[in-house]
Structures are given as structure tokens and as C-alpha cells.
Amino acid sequence: MTSPTLTRRGRVVAAVCVVGVGMALAAGGRSLEAVVLPSAVALAAGYVQLARIDEPAVRRTLPSEGFVGEGGEVRLAFRGRGTNGAVSPTYVADVDDGLDDGLEGPPGPVRTSVGDAPATYRVRYRRRGERRFGPVTVTASDVFGLFERRTVVEEFDTALAYPACREIPPWLRRALYADDAVGASRRREEFDRLREYARGDPLRDVHWPATAKHDEIVVKAFAAETERGRVAIAGEAGGGRESAGGRKSAGDRAPADALASAAASLALALLDDGVPVDLTLPGGEVSADPGRRGRRAVLELAARTGPGSGGVEEADVRVVADESGARYRVDDRAVAFDDVAGGTVGGAVEETVGGVVGETVVDAASDVADEATTEASVPRERDEVIGR
């Protein structure tokens, strides 16, 4: 922790003291008593107050992982480094938490009383990937604002920001797997296992006894369902050059960001339909099954992937991205992601399928009905794009 230094106000008061001493020597002691002594006492008190404080320990509480454009509250709690953990004495300070260029925080430092209350501020994810918080700069000031003392606490944390995901129309999703796959999964054949509810599951498959024992909807999976084919998605994005320090340049990030958004949007939509997905991107590959775990695996891979090629030639659909955007390629047909994608999807990571069982079942039934209606209304467009 640095030594106490004078603020602008402190320098003014110190200058007044110097001038007062000069006047006292020239004209008598009254100016010394009226101006210099109170100013000197204030300077001495401010210096002693800051000289007594110690560097605090910081514990940072981050918002939950989210999509680009989302965010939450960051909380910085301070404690002493002694055995009891108390900050003594408490003091007023401006707290500035370091944020990387993929985060948007407050316009300036947050003022708080260290030892009495935590410092809080709002943050927003501007770009996908691992976002870094820290270090924390604490600038303490005395009660008169004459001195300040600065310390930098080397406390770092990271949070994962997922790419912005958008809705994929039902006709495009359904065209990527066999028309009889959904029908086969609905047949009442041999019971196989229990699994998490996925959007599109029929209400009759809900296993109510298991659902009552868990915090999520549980459905029955039958033998026919387990045989449903997986959809293989592979992606590639132009670029690959690195700037100084190993960071991707802004020109390379754009195709990679478009790839991550398009690939994650399609994979999540298929998982919502109950279709397993094999996703291969330049950053790795995952085999995801319907449910929260599968969704999280897809989003984590998409958040971390960079430019390059997924290296899978025999994929059901390829996602190709460049400076002009991302495109879905199925056989020899291609469609632009921006032309078919709908509104932004948010909160998919932490969703608990509605939270309330009754509301969840109603929402699930609505989803099935809406998708069936939408699919029936656009058969010609689907056939043109996919080539059927």
C-alpha cells in the first residue's frame, strides 16, 4: 500500500499554511492562530487516519454466466487480513474493479465505506468468451479529503459469456432429421430410462412420481426414442491471425463470433426438439443430449471457439462464417443465418423448465402446438432451402 499523498484540496490547504506562516512571521501571530493552526491540525489528522489503515482482502461475487448483452451485479466484499477478518479502522474509499474490453461496467469508481458495506456495480457482457475481472484498485481518503492512499489488490476472477443465440424456425430444424424420427419417439414401445424434459416432449411422457421428487420435469424415454439419430453440426470461420499478446484481432473475431452464434442457435433449437447433437467447432467438439447439461456443453464450446475449421466433412449441416456473416449448408444448398433466424434467445442456461410444474406443462403444450402450426405454414420454403 502506498504512503498517503496530498489531494488537490490537501495541496491548497498546505499552501495556505505556508502562506499563513509567512504572514505570521511578517505581521504577527494572529494569522498563525486563525488560519495556520486549524489547517495544520486537519492535515495531521488526515495523515494519521490513512497511515493507520491496512490493505484489505477482497472477495468478488460475480453474476451468473449469461449471453452477450446480458449481465448482472458484481459485489466486492472487504475484510481484514487479521485473524478476526474485521477491517479496523473503517474508511471511505473509491473502488475501481478492472474489467477487460469484453465487459461494460460503471463509468467511474464506486464509492463505499470499506469495512462497513460492500461495493456493488452493474456489469454487462459485451463479447463472448472468458471475461476477466480484476485487479481491484482501492483509493482511500480521509474525512477532510486532504489525503489519499492507494492500493491495488491482485484479486482476479473470470466469467463465461455465451454468444448471442437466436430462434431457428421449426421448418429448418425439422428438415435436418428424418420425418419419422419424431413419430418413432412417440410410439409406446419398451420403456428405456428417465431423462430431463426437453421442449417438444408430449405431456403423456411426463413421469409424475419422479417429477415430484426433483426440481425439474422428468419424462419417460422409450426404446424407439433412444434410437433417434443424432444431427452432426460442423463449423468453420475465416481468420486465425493473432495480434501481439496472443489475442485475436477484431477482424478475426467477427467471423468466429458469427460462427459461434449460428452454431449454438441451431444446436440449442435441435436440443429443444429432443434431438441429440454432435457439434464440432474449431475450439473442440461435444456430443450433447437434450437437457440442461447438453445445452451448457454446447454454449461453453461456442463461447470459447475461435476461427478455423471443425475438420468434419460428413456433417449433416455445416456452418460457414466469414466477414459477411454465417450460412447453413446442407448438401449443395445454403441459407444465410440472418435470413432465417428470429428473435434473440435469453436465459437458456439457468432455466429450470418454467420453475412451476403446472406452468411448465402448459408452456410445453403451447410450444408443440406453435411449432406444428409454423411448420405446416412453410413447407414450400423448407423444401426450396433443403432441396427436397
Please give a handful of descriptors for the protein shown.
3 domains, seven-stranded mixed β-sheet, 11 helices, 22 strands, 35% helix
Contiguous helical run count: 11
Write down how many β-strands occur, each being a DSSP E stretch of 2 or more residues: 22
Instruction: Provide the number of structural domains.
Output: 3
Parts with pLDDT < 50 across at least 5 consecutive residues: 179-188, 240-252, 351-388
- The shape is elongated
Structural class designation: alpha+beta
Q: Which percent range describes the beta-strand content?
A: 25-35%
Cα gyration radius (Å): 30 Å
> How much helicity do the residues have?
25-40%
Q: How many angstroms does the end-to-end distance come to?
A: 70 Å
The overall pLDDT average reads 80
Biggest sheet record: 7 strands, mixed
Note down, in words, how this protein is organized.
The structure is a single chain. By secondary structure, the protein is of the alpha+beta class. It folds into 3 domains: 8-51; 57-161, Immunoglobulin-like; 165-386, no CATH class. The protein has 11 helices and 22 strands. The chain has helices spanning 8-27, 30-51, 170-174, 179-186, 208-213, 223-226, 250-272, 292-304, 337-340, 357-377, 379-386, and strands at residues 5-6, 57-61, 66-67, 71-79, 91-99, 103-104, 110-114, 119-125, 129-141, 147-153, 157-162, 165-166, 191-196, 218-222, 231-237, 277-281, 284-288, 308-309, 317-322, 325-330, 333-336, 344-345. Strands 1, 3, 5, 7, 9, 10 and 11 form a 7-stranded mixed beta sheet that branches. The longest helix has 23 residues, at 250-272. It is elongated, with a radius of gyration of 30 Å. The model is unreliable at 179-188, 240-252 and 351-388 (pLDDT under 50).
